Amino acid sequence: MRIVVLAGGIGGARFLRGLKSAVPDADITVIGNTGDDIHLFGLKVCPDLDTVMYTLGGGINEDQGWGRTDESFTVKEELAAYGVGPTWFGLGDRDFATHIVRTQMLGAGYPLSAVTEALCDRWQPGVRLLPMSDDRVETHVAITEAGTGERRVIHFQEYWVRLRASVDAEAVVPVGAEQAKPAPGVLEAIAAADVIVFPPSNPVVSVGTILAVPGIREAIAAAGAPVVGLSPIVGGAPVRGMADKVLAAVGVESTAAAVALHYGTDLLDGWLVDTSDAAAVAEVEAAGITCRAVPLMMTDLEATAEMARAALELAEASQ
Amino acid sequence: MRIVVLAGGIGGARFLRGLKSAVPDADITVIGNTGDDIHLFGLKVCPDLDTVMYTLGGGINEDQGWGRTDESFTVKEELAAYGVGPTWFGLGDRDFATHIVRTQMLGAGYPLSAVTEALCDRWQPGVRLLPMSDDRVETHVAITEAGTGERRVIHFQEYWVRLRASVDAEAVVPVGAEQAKPAPGVLEAIAAADVIVFPPSNPVVSVGTILAVPGIREAIAAAGAPVVGLSPIVGGAPVRGMADKVLAAVGVESTAAAVALHYGTDLLDGWLVDTSDAAAVAEVEAAGITCRAVPLMMTDLEATAEMARAALELAEASQ
C-alpha cells in the first residue's frame, strides 16, 4: 500500500510513528512542510523535516517533541558570548551538526530534496521524506506589537517560538510559495498513492503551506486515491500548539468541523474527529465528507497506531 | 611605542603574550597569517588568527597551544555520524561557534578584517589583530604519497595535521597570494611602526606567507623602523612544529643562521639566536645583520617577556 502523508512537525511526526506501527509494510512518502524553515547564524534550519527525521529515526527529544535527545548547548552559549543572536531559538550542539551538513551541501549546489535524502541515510526513518519544494518558502506572520501598537511582519518562528503566539496573527503569508515548484517526486507520489493522509498537523502553517505550493493542491484534488484527514482540533482547542491563532488569521473557527470545511470537499473524502466532537460528524457529512468520531489523542504509540488504522479504514470506506 | 608583529600561530601568539608583558603600554599591531585558513564543513576556519585571539584573550587550550580551553566535541561526533569529514581536524564545539560567526559575517559581505575585529570585540586581545589580507590565500604543499608514489598537492592543514609532515614537502605554494592585497591598515601600520618584529614563527608557512602578499615585503624593506627577528630554529631543529620540512622545500637549512639569511638583509636589521647557537652570530653579522645570542625557549611568561625585551633592545641597537 502506497501512502502519502502531508506532515508538519511534532503532530505529523508522532502520527507517522503510529502509522508505521499500524502498517509496517506500507510504502510511505512524507511531503514535509518547509515553510517554517529559517536561516539562523548563516545556517539553513528545517524544523519540520528534522522533527520527522529525528522522531522516526530515534534521535528526537521525546519530552519536548523537537530537537535531539541527550543534547548540549555549548555552541549556542558561545554565540551568545559573541553577542550573536537570536537567543530565543534553541539550537543544540547535536542539532547544529545537522544544519551544518545541510548548509554545506546546499552551498555545494545540492537541492534540499537531495540533502534531505542524504541526512536520512543516517537516520533511516523508514519513510521517504520529501520537502514540499526545493525552492525557498518562508511563512511570515503579520502582527501588531503589544506595547508599541506597531504593525510588523515577522518570520513564523519568531511568532511561534519567541512570541509563543501571544498576539493575534493578522495574516499568515507563505512568502515564496507562489513561485515554488513541488520537489522532485512529490507530484509523482501523490499520483501513485493508494491513500493520502492529512495528519493532525496545523491546517494553516503546516498542511496549508504545503497546499500553497502550486500544483500540490491540484494534484491531490485530481488523485484517484481517497484523501482522509485527522482533526488537530479536539473539543474546540488545538491538541498541541497554537493552531487556533493561525486559524483565526484565515477566518476559520477552531472546531473540528470548521477545519474539515476549510480543507473542503475538493480535497477531503474523509475526516476523523475526536469522540468528544461526535456532534460535528453530522455537519461534516452534510458537506459531503465522510466523517467518523474516534479517539484522537496520541497518548502513546498504540493509541496513535489505532488512529492510523481508523484513518485507513475511513479511506477504504470513502472510496 | 608602535610595534608591528608578523605572526603565525602558537609561536607567534606565545611571543606576543611575552611582548605585552614586557611593554604593556605599547601599541601593538599583529599582522596575522591567513595562508593556513581552510574551509571545513562549509565554514571558514582561520587557525592562526584564532590562536592569537584565544591566546591573548584567555580562551586558549594552554596544553595544546591551539583551540579552546574546556572544550567538547559533540558537533564533530555528530558530523562523523553523518559520514561527513574530514575527521582529522579537531574542531571543538566552542571553536565551532567562532567559525559560524565568522562565516555568517563573511556571507553577509563583511571582509575578514572587519570580521576579525568583531570577534576581537569579545576577546579583547590587547593588540590590533589584522589578517594579512582580506583576499583568500591558501597554502598548498606538493608531496609524493608514501604508499602509492603518487604526486599530490594538498592543503597545508592536511600536510601539517593529517600527515604531521611525515613526508617531504616538495614545494610550498601560497595559492592566491600573488593576487592578494594587504588588508586595510597593514601597510599603514608598517609605515608608522617604531619596531617591526618577526617572532619565532615558521619562516616559510607563517611569516613567509605574509611576506608573499605583494606590497608587504616591500613596505617592510622600505620602513624606517628597525626590523628584528627571533630564530624559530634552536640547535639545528625547530623549537616546535616541523619547520625543517618546509624550510627544506625552499632550499633553506634548518639552522638559526640560514633562516636569517633567508629573510635577508633587505628585511632584517637584527636577529636573535639561542645561546646554544652562539656560533651562528659571526655568520649572521658577516652578512650585515646585527645578531645576539640570548635564551630563546618560551618556557614561561617571564622567559618570553625577556626574549621580547632582548628583541626591542636589539632593535634599538640596530637603528
TrEMBL record, chains A, B:
Q: Which UniProt keywords apply?
A: Magnesium, Transferase
Q: Which residues are recorded as binding 7,8-didemethyl-8-hydroxy-5-deazariboflavin? A: D50
| Cofactors required | Mg(2+)
InterPro entries hit by this protein: CofD, CofD-like_dom_sf, FbiA/CofD
According to UniProt, the reaction catalysed is: enolpyruvoyl-2-diphospho-5'-guanosine + 7,8-didemethyl-8-hydroxy-5-deazariboflavin = dehydro coenzyme F420-0 + GMP + H(+)
Quick one: which pathway? Cofactor biosynthesis; coenzyme F420 biosynthesis
Functional note: Catalyzes the transfer of the phosphoenolpyruvate moiety from enoylpyruvoyl-2-diphospho-5'-guanosine (EPPG) to 7,8-didemethyl-8-hydroxy-5-deazariboflavin (FO) with the formation of dehydro coenzyme F420-0 and GMP.
Give the PANTHER family listed for this entry.
Answer: 2-PHOSPHO-L-LACTATE TRANSFERASE (PTHR43007)
What name goes with this protein?
Phosphoenolpyruvate transferase
